[in-house]
Specification:
The protein has 226 residues and is an alpha/beta fold. The chain is built from 10 helices and 6 strands; from the N terminus they run βααααααβαβαβαββα. A 6-stranded parallel β-sheet has the order 3-2-1-4-5-6, with helices on both faces.
């Protein structure tokens, strides 16, 4: 039995496809209400989406978007940040990534599963609930602040009593999700989804890359033979 630690956004849940566009739309509306001026809402929204897709986070994308418009003001950033990160109202459908549901169910029969996700606990739990992710199949769900996840991985290994060679970490962000796990000696799997599609720095340090969760299965078979 292996321990498989997943990131949540753009690894299990299609955040970039089914959440971020809606959140960015609401964020732009909120900034305009605060006095942010655009000549065309549609054009500004397209620019915001494009900038966000290449950024490490929506916060970084917002800052760059405001810089482009010479409108770096705390009031704009604060209302947009609140809309994206704190608003728990998900009126739209939230989707999982390709083959996530069936793969998680299958993996849970043989392996121990966990989640380490950056964000706000209530918001992340609501996302999983809305997407239909069965939280009961996970041994642990850890929601932490942005930054290195190394200490959270270390604690999971210690609490669940796994050696690094018995642990796989799967996430879309190489620097934040995978490299901290690599330094511990865990096997790393890069999920090329959402922001993960544009991650280039550190690619050579990742053990495996996948584009859908079911591609984990042959990797697990390979590791079990070692």
């Amino acid at each position: 039995m292996l321990l498989i630690i997943f990131d949540l956004d753009d690894t299990l849940i299609d955040t970039s496809g089914s959440i971020i566009p809606y959140k960015l739309y609401r964020a732009l509306q909120s900034m305009i209400k605060e006095g942010f001026i655009v000549s065309s809402f549609e054009e500004a929204f397209e620019i915001l989406k494009r900038v966000d897709s290449y950024s490490d986070s929506s916060l970084q994308g917002l800052k760059e978007f405001l810089e482009i418009h010479d409108a770096v003001q705390d009031k704009f950033l604060q209302v947009a940040f609140k809309e994206i990160y704190h608003n728990q109202a998900f009126e739209q459908e939230i989707l999982v990534t390709k083959n996530a549901q069936e793969t998680l169910f299958e993996l849970s029969k043989k392996h121990s599963l966990a989640i380490v996700s950056a964000g706000i606990l209530d918001v992340q739990i609501e996302k999983m609930k809305k997407a239909g992710v069965d939280t009961s199949i996970f041994s642990r769900i850890v929601v932490c602040k942005e930054g290195s996840k190394r200490e959270h991985y270390e604690r999971l290994l210690e609490d669940l009593k796994y050696l690094p060679r018995e642990v796989i970490v799967c996430g879309d962000r190489i620097k934040k999700d995978l490299l901290p796990a690599k330094t511990l000696g865990c096997t790393t799997v890069h999920m090329k989804w959402g922001r993960g599609l544009y991650q280039k720095r550190g690619v050579q340090e990742v053990d495996f890359s996948i584009t859908s969760l079911d591609q984990l299965k042959p990797i697990l078979l390979q590791l079990e033979k070692l």
